[in-house]
Amino acid sequence: MQWREISVHTTTEGADLVSGVLMELGALGTEIKDRNDVPDPDKPGVYWELYDKKLLENMPEDVVVKGWFEQDSDVDETVAALKEQLQMYAAMDLGVDLGSLKIDQDNVKDEDWAEEWKKYYKPFRIGSHLVVKPTWEDYAVQPDDLVIELDPGMAFGTGTHETTNMCMQLLERYLADGMRVMDVGTGSGILAIAAAKLNAKDILAIDIDPDAVKVAKENVALNGVEEQIRVVVGDLCKSEAMPCDLAVANIVADAICMLAGPMTRHLEKDGLLICSGIIREKEQQVMDAALEAGYTLHDRIEKGEWVALCLKNEAK
Questions:
Q1: pLDDT on residue 116
Q2: Residue 180 in contact with residue 54, Cβ under 8 Å?
Q3: What is the C-alpha separation between 195 and 200, in angstroms, rounded?
Q4: DSSP label at 196?
Q5: 6-32 pLDDT per residue, tens
Q6: Considering all CA atoms of the chain, what is the largest pairwise distance in Å, rounded to the nearest integer?
Q7: What is the CATH number of the domain that holds 170?
Q8: Does this model's pTM top 0.70?
Q9: Domain count, the chain
Q10: SS3 call for 137
Q11: Number of helices (H) and strands (E), helices first, in the chain?
């Protein structure tokens, strides 16, 4: 099948917004190409040997968000709608730089886009023990490695993005054996699986996107942790939840602000909420909402433009 590949040039701050617009317009999937997602080989603690160095060489100078649409009679109307919507956002004062929002187009075949990104996605280490291994790559397991087999499909969460990476670091730091864990906005299931590898005993993974839940269930089965993880379609505020000792939410700042209060009802006293997807400019907004809901700041990590917070629930 032929596809129309639409690329939008933007910034790190604008990438999620652009990706969301493409998905709303019917994109089968999106990909964000951002140099900030690639570890700096000159910084200490980066396991660069686990990456293909051509990844950085092939990254665009600005941030490019790609979406793929069926090559049918409506695709030109879709492009026109995209231009109109991006122009609307460019005219609004959103408080972030969206970049040029220039649009490029190309026609591709199934195999061209479905497999291209896999060439550069290699096994890599996060923290002391966690290793994320794409299902199609080989990896020589080292003593004490906790290997997560992953095929992210079209769901968010490969571990390479700073937000996912920082959440995994905080999980390794604070998750104790036997904890009950809730993963809100599970995406590919990577954080729930990391929690299982770190010996959490009962894990509920929730996402509002049925496609993400399908991918997460496949990855849970791939890692043999079905007994520890239950994956459901749902909204924390409206559907299933459970008492937990630790919750993790790698979503967006506004959603964290909205969920901080309801989460205290499910999180045990002194339980921890690990959250990211927070641009530094919105950190104070998240902290204000967290303090109002009854949390205190327990730990904080930042990478690039992103922040991850570990909050302690003092509300009960």
A1: 59
A2: no
A3: 6
A4: H
A5: 999 999 889 989 998 998 898 887 888
A6: 57
A7: 3.40.50.150
A8: no
A9: 2
A10: coil
A11: 9, 14
> Do 160 and 42 belong together in one domain?
no
Q: What is the CATH number of the domain that holds 114?
A: 3.30.70
Span 228-239, mean pLDDT? 82
Residue where a domain terminates, one of 120, 140, 160: 120
Report in angstroms the alpha-carbon separations of 274 from 44, 100, 166, 249, 286: 24, 33, 9, 6, 12
Number of alpha carbons in the 13 Å side-chain half-sphere of residue 41: 10
Question: Using CA atoms, how far apart are residues 178 and 166, in angstroms rounded to an integer?
Answer: 22
Tokens of 201: 């005993």
10 Å Cβ neighbour count for 283?
A: 17
For residues 90 and 133, state if they share a domain: no
For residue 282, the 8-state DSSP code is G
Q: Is residue 107 located within the same domain as residue 165?
A: no
Which domain range does residue 63 map to?
2-120
Of 133-142, 234-243, 244-253, where does mean pLDDT reach its minimum?
234-243
Question: What does the alpha-carbon distance between residue 123 and residue 248 come to, in Å, rounded to a whole number?
Answer: 23
